[in-house]
Design goal:
Layout (H helix, E strand, L loop, with lengths): L1 H54 L2 H12 L3 H32 L4 H7 L1 H7 L3 H6 L3 H22 L6 H17 L23 H28 L2 H37 L3 H38 L6 H8 L2 H16 L5 H26 L1 H22 L6 H4 L3 H21 L4 H21 L3 H11 L1
Helix pairs in contact: 1-3, 1-5, 1-7, 1-9, 1-10, 2-3, 2-9, 2-10, 3-5, 4-8, 5-8, 7-8, 9-10, 9-14, 9-15, 10-11, 10-12, 10-13, 10-15, 11-12, 11-13, 11-17, 11-18, 12-15, 13-15, 14-15, 17-18
Subcellular location: Membrane
Main location: membrane
Membrane topology: Multi-pass membrane protein
C-alpha cells in the first residue's frame, strides 16, 4: 500500500509541476507570443546542458544509494553528505563554464542570466534523498506551495512581451526556492557523522557511469529545441516546446511509477529477492501499458482543435505536432519501466547506458534532415523514432530474463479498447465546435469507453487494481 501512496503522491506532484506552466502557458503564449515562447525554450535548452553536467548523475545514483543503505542511519547520513558535497563542487564548475560561455555567445544574454538560476538551484536539489527513502509526501507538499506562489507572481508581474525576462526569473527562482525548502526536513532522517572519514571521490566513478546515460537522454530531450532554434528559428522551437509540454504532462502520470519503484526495486534487489523484482516488473509494465495506450490515442484524438483553443490562433501549427509526437508516450512509458524500474535498480548500468545512447544517436541523425525539410514536425517524428529505438534495445537485452509473452499478454486488449475510443473521440472533435464543455465531454466519453471495454475484455489490470485498492 505504501507503493500506491507514493505513486499517487509522485504522480500528483509530477502532474502539478506540469499543470503549473500549462495554467500559465495560454496566458504567456498570448502575452509574449511565439517568438517569446521560442526564446524561453531555446535559452532554457542551453541552460539544461550546464545543469546536466553539474548534476553528474547524482539524482539516479543518490536515489539508489540511499535506498540501499536506508536501514543504516549512520552510513546513510555519511553517504548523503558525501554525494551532496560532490554535487555542489560539480555545480561550481558548471557555473564557471556557463559564464565563460556567456562571454563567448552574442545572443540573449539577459535571458540566459535569468535562466542560469536553474544551475544554482540544481546544487540544492536533494529530492533524490527523500525519494531514496520513499518519502514523497515531504517533497510534494513543500514544493507545491512554492509553485502556487510562482503562478500568482506570473499573473501579477508578467503583463507585456517586454516582461519575458521577468517570467523566466520567476520560473527559475521558484525552482531554487523549492529546492531550498526541502533542507529543513533533513533533521528528521540524518544523524551526526564524522567529517574526517569523508571520501567524496568514491562516488564520482559510479555517478559518472549513470551520468553517461543522462547525457544521452538529455540530448534527445533538449537537442530538438536547440537545433530548431539554430536551423529553423526560435518560433519553431516555441511551437515544438508547447507540443512537448502537453506530451510531458500526460507522461507524468505514467513515468511517476519509475520514480516510486526505483528505490523499492533497488531495496528488494539488495536483499536478494530477484523473483519479487520480476513480479514488480510485470505489474508495472502492465499498468503503464494500460494507462499510456488511452493517453496517447486520446491526446491524438483531441489534438486537431486543442492547440488553437488552448494556446491561441498563433499556435495552430502545434495541433499537428501533438498528433505526431503522441506515440512517444507509449514508448517512453515502456522504457521507463524497463530502464528505471529494472535495469537501473539491478545495477545493469551498461545496458541502460547503451539503450539511451542509441536513442541519442538516432535522434541526432534524424534531426538534421527532418528539421531541415519539415521543421518542428520533423523534430516530433525524430522524437518518436528515438524513443522507439531506446525501448527496442531494452526489450532485446532483457529477453532472456523475463517472459515476453507475460509482459505483453494484454497489449492487444488495451490497443483494441484504445482504438475504439480514438475513433469516437476524434469524430466528436472534428464534428463539433471546441470549447471547455466539449473538451470535458470528449475526455469523459473516452474514459468511459476505454474502461468499459477493458472490463469487457477482462484485462488483468482490473484484478491488479482491486488487489491494490483492497490490500
Amino acid at each position: 500500500m505504501k507503493v500506491v501512496k507514493n505513486y499517487l503522491y509522485n504522480a500528483g506532484y509530477q502532474i502539478f509541476l506540469l499543470i503549473v506552466p500549462l495554467i500559465t502557458t495560454p496566458y504567456i503564449a498570448r502575452v509574449i507570443g511565439p517568438s517569446g515562447v521560442g526564446i524561453n525554450a531555446y535559452t532554457n535548452s542551453i541552460i539544461q546542458y550546464f545543469v546536466l553536467f553539474g548534476s553528474i548523475g547524482i539524482n539516479m545514483y543518490g536515489n539508489r544509494e540511499i535506498a540501499f543503505f536506508r536501514d543504516n542511519p549512520k552510513k546513510m547520513s555519511q553517504i548523503f553528505w558525501e554525494i551532496e558535497l560532490l554535487r555542489i563542487l560539480a555545480i561550481v564548475l558548471a557555473e564557471t563554464a556557463f559564464f565563460i560561455f556567456l562571454n563567448w555567445t552574442k545572443q540573449y544574454h539577459v535571458y540566459l542570466l535569468m535562466q542560469s538560476l536553474l544551475i544554482t538551484a540544481a546544487a540544492f536539489d536533494i529530492s533524490w534523498f527523500f525519494m531514496g527513502l520513499e518519502d514523497f509526501r515531504t517533497t510534494v507538499l513543500r514544493n507545491t506551495i512554492v509553485k502556487v506562489a510562482s503562478v500568482i507572481l506570473i499573473f501579477t508581474f508578467v503583463k507585456t512581451a517586454q516582461d519575458l525576462a521577468v517570467y523566466i526569473l520567476i520560473i527559475s527562482g521558484s525552482q531554487l526556492l523549492g529546492n531550498l525548502s526541502l533542507w529543513p526536513f533533513l533533521r528528521r532522517h540524518l544523524v551526526k557523522v564524522s567529517w574526517h572519514g569523508f571520501d567524496l571521490l568514491q562516488h564520482l566513478r559510479p555517478a559518472l557511469v549513470l551520468f553517461i546515460p543522462q547525457i544521452a537522454t538529455q540530448i534527445y530531450l533538449v537537442l530538438n529545441k536547440t537545433m530548431l532554434g539554430k536551423i529553423t528559428g526560435v518560433t519553431a522551437a516555441g511551437f515544438f516546446d508547447n507540443s512537448d509540454k502537453i506530451i510531458k504532462m500526460v507522461l507524468a502520470v505514467v513515468t511517476a511509477t519509475g520514480t516510486v519503484m526505483l528505490p523499492r526495486v533497488a531495496h528488494t534487489f539488495a536483499q536478494g529477492d530477484k523473483a519479487q523484482v520480476n513480479r514488480y516488473l510485470y505489474s508495472s509494465f502492465d499498468f503503464v501499458t494500460a494507462a499510456s495506450v488511452p493517453m496517447f490515442l486520446g491526446l491524438a484524438a483531441i489534438a486537431p482543435k486543442f492547440a488553437v483553443w488552448f494556446f491561441g490562433a498563433k499556435f495552430a501549427a502545434t495541433n499537428t505536432l501533438i498528433m505526431l509526437e503522441a506515440p512517444a508516450i507509449l514508448m517512453i512509458a515502456w522504457s521507463n519501466v524497463l530502464g528505471m524500474q529494472y535495469l537501473m535498480p539491478t545495477n545493469r548500468n551498461r545496458d541502460f547506458t547503451v539503450s539511451v545512447t542509441i536513442g541519442a544517436i538516432v535522434n541526432l541523425i534524424l534531426n538534421v534532415p527532418l528539421i531541415m525539410f519539415w521543421g518542428a514536425a520533423g523534430a516530433s517524428v525524430s522524437t518518436v523514432f528515438s524513443e522507439a529505438s531506446v525501448t527496442g534495445y531494452q526489450l532485446f537485452v532483457v529477453r532472456h530474463d523475463i517472459k515476453m509473452r507475460q509482459l505483453f499478454a494484454d497489449l492487444w486488449k488495451y490497443i483494441l479498447a484504445g482504438l475504439v475510443m480514438f475513433v469516437v473521440v476524434l469524430w466528436l472533435n472534428i464534428n463539433h465546435p471546441f470549447n471547455i464543455m466539449w473538451l470535458l465531454l470528449e475526455v469523459g466519453s473516452g474514459v468511459i469507453i476505454y474502461v468499459a471495454l477493458v472490463f469487457v475484455l477482462r484485462a488483468k489490470i482490473i484484478k491488479q487494481a482491486k488487489q491494490l485498492l483492497f490490500s
